[in-house]
From TrEMBL:
Residues 290-306 have a biased composition (Basic and acidic residues). It comes from the Bacteria. PROSITE patterns: HTH_CROC1. Residues 36-83 form the HTH cro/C1-type domain. InterPro entries: Cro/C1-type_HTH, Lambda_DNA-bd_dom_sf, MLTR_LBD. Residues 273-306 are annotated as: Disordered. This is Helix-turn-helix transcriptional regulator.
Length: 306
């Protein structure tokens, strides 16, 4: 298992390489050979010796003080998320979660997602779905218990239709890094499998970016309707370390809202909602309209005026 000191060193080195000198007030130098900061520049800005900073990057100091880490965060121009992540890396690994609180059979989680009229699911530290309400589970396999949304982003997502897939995939990797403990065996397994399989994931992971997501636009591929846009909200669950409640909201009058209405009506009548609407004679026309003719919502904005 990789030590916490090694993790701190890896993060410092990656952030140093990624920090342009101008970001910390250094004058441009046309003769500079590296795009990031030099070790001695970081050490001087943090008020520590270059020798001690080298020990930190090499993982040879196992107990750097909070004061030193905060000084390094300032020297590297880390944002609040990056600073929090650096401090967390230096702390002892948290105890593993109780597996009994991470299953779809957990009555509290079932009640939590059932309270929501919108699609809602609960994900753990490694963005694995552990509970979902029927609407979310019916809409997409990526929102069903047992699915891992990060893995599906890199293995099952059609990158040709997903808007800005590369940027959004890197953001999800940054969220994954921030949420999961680096010593978690599940993280180690996911990183190992995806790094070998996908160079895009390997590059995103090597960047050591961190991000906290709370709300924003989200896209889901919902068979047979294609790509739909939602507004996504993530909330931490009090008393459940590492668990996050995600809710998807659809703009009134949008195609996403019509699909949700369609699926909700079929669930109410115990009809499998994944059945293509063009094959279902009982489909609710008022909710569907011409949905079956639009696999990509961006088609609605394409026309002769382009």
């Amino acid at each position: 298992m990789v030590s916490r000191a090694t993790l701190v060193g890896d993060y410092l080195r990656a952030r140093r390489d990624a920090t342009p000198p101008v970001a910390v007030g250094l004058a441009p130098d046309p003769n500079r050979r590296v795009p990031g900061l030099r070790r001695e520049e970081v050490a001087a800005a943090a008020g520590i010796s270059a020798e001690y900073y080298l020990r930190l990057e090499q993982g040879r100091d196992h107990q750097p003080s909070t004061q030193v880490l905060l000084a390094l965060a300032r020297a590297l121009a880390l944002d609040d998320t990056g600073r929090t992540y650096l401090l967390r890396l230096s702390e002892p690994a948290p105890p593993p979660p109780d597996p009994r609180t991470r299953t779809p059979d957990d009555p509290e989680l079932r009640r939590l997602v059932a309270r929501h009229d919108a699609p809602a699911f609960v994900a753990d530290e490694v963005i694995g779905v552990v509970a979902a309400n029927p609407l979310a589970a019916a809409l997409s396999g990526s929102m069903r218990p047992g699915a891992n949304r990060l893995v599906q982003m890199f293995t099952a997502m059609d990158r040709t239709i997903y808007p800005e897939w590369s940027r959004r995939a890197r953001e999800m990797v940054a969220v994954f890094r921030m949420r999961a403990d680096p010593a978690d065996p599940r993280l180690v397994d996911i990183v190992g499998r995806l790094s070998v399989r996908d160079p895009d994931f390997a590059a995103a992971w090597a960047s050591h970016d961190t991000r906290v997501f709370t709300t924003g636009p989200a896209y889901e591929v919902i068979p047979p309707f294609g790509l739909l846009e939602f507004e996504c909200e993530d909330l931490g669950i009090p008393g459940r370390r590492g668990l996050t409640l995600t809710t998807l909201y659809a703009e009134p009058g949008s195609r996403a809202a019509a699909v949700i209405a369609f699926v909700r009506e079929h669930l109410a009548h115990d009809v499998h909602p994944s059945l293509s609407p063009s094959l279902n004679p009982a489909r609710p026309r008022s909710a569907l309209g011409d949905l079956e003719h639009h696999d990509d919502p961006r088609d609605e904005h394409r026309g002769g005026d382009e």
